Amino acid sequence: MKAVVFHDVGDIRLDNVANPAIKSADDAIIRITESAICGTDLHMVRGTLAGMEAGTILGHEAVGIVEETGAQVRNLQRGDRVVVPSTIACGHCSYCRTGYHAQCDNANPNGKLAGTSFFGGPGATGAFDGLQAEYARIPYANAGLVKLPDEVDSEDALMVSDIVPTAYFGAEMAQVTPGKSVAVFGCGPVGLFAIVSAQLMGAGRVFAIDNRASRLRMARAQGAEVIDFDAEDPVDMVRQLTGGIGADCAIDAVGVDSETARSGPVSEQADYKTEQYRRGRAQNQSPRLVVAARRRAKPGAGVVHPSSGEGRDRLDHRCLSAEPDRVFDRQRHAAQPHPAHGQLPPPPLHPRAGRPLAQRHAQAARGVDPARADRRRYRSLSQFRSARRGLDESQARHDAVDCKPGAEHDRKIQLVEGPR
Known about the structure:
five-stranded antiparallel sheet; four-stranded parallel sheet; 13 strands; globular; disordered C terminus
């Protein structure tokens, strides 16, 4: 038979290959009558999807006629016209039974953690031969193949193989409900079906954003309000069209091969953001959230930065500051200089209150009760700390409001701050 075969990046050929055969009792062989090229197939051609094996037949969208079935395929027979789902699923694992067929435990021969299997994909997906061929073997045919009614045209049914479910799932994840306004970014085939899906879900208005005239014409024909991002700022235009409110939902239907505005009011802004991103990558700035580690093999060792290699495998509860010059020990609420910086940090703060601990201790020394100076905030802290120590709520409220300076006050400070 003839098939579209991957040999290398940029080297796709129409070859003569052997006809497929039944390998498992739940297999079926179909004669393909309609097949389509998906945007995913272009990644194999360009090399943007790694791991493709030479000799793999491409394609994962097809309609065909059943020619042969395995012993366990009891719901189909020779001559049935069927549509082939792009992903492969067993139909009986826990994920399949709850509707998550793309997370099937059994379809991928690389194991349960290997991910989704689909026809014509790379080795990590199982390297199943695809559907751009005259015949194809369909694993788990009893669970995957969908018999078509006579009134459904094969070309229309082909869209159900992959592209329509993708778009519909996007609209579903965007939580489109009746009356909502929806912005669809990208008006390729998936974007156009996303427009239709949003309308089927009752969307009040749909804004279609793209820069290709042919796509915008098709989106307008579907009843969407079109926006050319090469001619106008799409964000500002959506706001103008919605009285300054904006869209209720947004669907990204652009895919991997995205592009920015080539002209118009947003092109300079896009160039600026691209340059800023490149500079940030070049500088390789360290993350602002720093997790400090301590080598437990040396109990006396100081705070160690994970990126230094020391203590990377053993982390404790020391950390968490969004400021790179401060490292907090959450057990003592004490601040220390960041190991990568020499300067000392500002005075440590109480974990919730806005005043430094030293100020609170000074108030206690002068006979000022911090609980009465800041009763509302301190009360909530007392209740929180007391709850963690198993005290009931009424006792915690009593302690927070009625504690006095002296021994009782020292006990309350100890309760709030934890052991010193």
